[in-house]
Write a structure and sequence with these properties.
InterPro entries: G_ENGB_dom, GTP-bd, GTP-bd_ribosome_bio_YsxC, P-loop_NTPase. This protein is of the alpha/beta class. The chain contains 5 helices and 7 strands. It has one domain: 3-Layer(aba) Sandwich (Rossmann fold), CATH 3.40.50.300. It has a 7-stranded mixed beta sheet, sandwiched between helices.
Length: 194
């Protein structure tokens, strides 16, 4: 697929602001700082479309990007950011839960994990939530450029094993080198053919 247009549409802080337009949503989920916004930009080849930052917790809102006037990429705020109050974490949980439960057009959720680390308790919680939902989801491993080729394979195997998943379903990516970007697009293209 060729990206002809990629436009920021809206930031949402509250469930009442969620969009109801009946086109597919592809969602970028994961721990704060895991590389959601960077991956989204890399897929679209648009630097700076989604704001990235070294400081975790940059994406505090749910951000919609409209691609080719045909589908949304949705950058959802990262969890696990220590400096967020309990009250704010609960608000986050409600927003994401409502979004994922009440949007009937979720094409797929990309659940991002840092390839260097074991999934955290919150990662596992999110993955379990996805597994018990009817949503389609894919595990995406980020920041692969920080590891050697051998280590990429080894970490991918270990993470798959610890999640009880098929290793082949995990996509190793890098927003720096572009590793895995074609594979994600192949998955997206397939989703549109179904
Ligand atoms: P929040 O918005 O806080 O939830 O974070 P995020 O998941 O959107 O992460 P973001 O894309 O802002 O990236 C966080 C930091 O990791 C930035 O300093 C990025 O440059 C860096 N980063 C993201 N992806 C990669 C990658 O593939 N390789 C390397 N080396 N760094 C990356
Ligand atoms: Mg972000």
């Amino acid at each position: 697929m060729q990206v002809r247009s990629a436009v920021f549409v809206k930031s949402v802080a509250d469930p009442s602001g969620l969009l109801k337009r009946p086109i597919p949503h592809f969602v970028f989920s994961g721990r704060s700082n895991v590389g959601k916004s960077s991956l989204l930009n890399c897929l679209l080849n648009r630097k700076g479309l989604a704001k990235t930052s070294r400081t975790p917790g940059k994406t505090r809102l749910l951000n919609y990007f409209l691609i080719n006037d045909q589908f949304f990429f949705v950058d959802i705020p990262g969890y696990g950011f220590a400096r967020v109050s309990k009250k704010e974490q609960e608000k986050w949980g409600r927003l994401i839960d409502t979004y994922l439960t009440d949007t009937p057009f979720i094409g797929s959720v990309f659940q991002l994990l840092d390839i260097r680390h074991d999934p955290t308790a919150q990662d596992r919680q999110m993955i379990e939530w996805l597994q018990q939902s009817d949503l389609s989801f894919r595990i995406i491993l980020t920041k692969a450029d920080k590891l050697s080729r051998n280590k990429i394979a080894q970490h991918r195997r270990n993470i798959a094993k610890s999640l009880g998943m098929d290793e082949g379903s995990l996509i190793a990516t890098s927003s720096e080198s572009g590793l895995g970007i074609r594979e994600i697009w192949a998955f997206l293209n397939q989703a549109f053919e179904e």
